[in-house]
Amino acid sequence: MKQIVFIGDCDKTDLLFYVCKLLGMEHEVLLADLTRSGRYRHTYPKMEMEAEIHQYDNFDIAESVPDITGISELTASNAYDYVIVDIDDPFKIGGLASLNDFYLVTSYDNHSIQENKVLLEALVRELSKDRLVTMTKVICEVEHTFTEDFLVQQYDHLPIEWREPLIYVPDERDLSRKINNQFSGTVQLKRLSPEYKLVIKSIVESILGIEAKQAHALWKQAERSK
Q1: What domain of life does the native source organism fall in (predicted)?
Q2: What is the pLDDT along the chain (226 residues), one digit of tens a residue?
Q3: What CATH number should be reported for the domain holding residue 111?
Q4: 205: closest CA among 215, 220, 195?
């Protein structure tokens, strides 16, 4: 079982739904919500509000997971290939320091930048001595503000090895699809913006260790699924 952690003081629900949809085409996937506000509670339709695990499309969701121990308990009784973790809580993140696959999802909004700094500092405090964390920045970038170099300066003091960033710009098509999916029993992928599609595919390529051509085929398969 592989666990991938998505850090960030922002709404990542739609991004991770798309990632899980693609992963779930050929694997058993759990999306674990470790956010402070329980972001996933009202982002998809469900039959039983208080169930421990909810099925959405072709993957499972565990809401309001208390900590890393909660993930271990859930996965002990279910055979998952991938666990996708969404976290924005500095009091929980230290328990994930032993994992190896991290993404920072952010924008250039100063509140997010500063809250993310708190998150990252809480994470690296729990690292074993001399260990570097490898992490990918997923950036929602708006024109005429900053570039990725600005984020590098903000987090340069931390023991993090940054991979090549994934960058997209806000697009009304993506927001429209996000809202419509919240009322749908399936995660629809059609009519997303090209830049956002590329970011999603790149994440899936990295997680699965596949080439772009294979990710494209997986996307087409997911688009056709009901």
Answers
A1: Bacteria
A2: 999 999 999 999 999 999 999 999 999 999 999 999 999 999 999 878 778 899 999 999 999 888 888 888 888 878 899 999 999 999 999 999 888 899 999 999 999 999 999 999 999 999 877 788 999 999 998 887 888 888 888 999 999 999 999 999 999 999 999 999 999 999 999 999 999 999 999 999 999 999 999 999 999 999 988 6
A3: 3.40.50.300
A4: 215
As for how many domains the chain has, the answer is 1
- Say whether pTM exceeds 0.90: yes
Are 146 and 211 in contact by the 8 Å Cβ rule? The answer is no
Residue numbers of the domain that contains 174: 2-224
Helices (H), the chain: 13-23, 68-76, 110-124, 148-155, 172-181, 194-208, 212-224
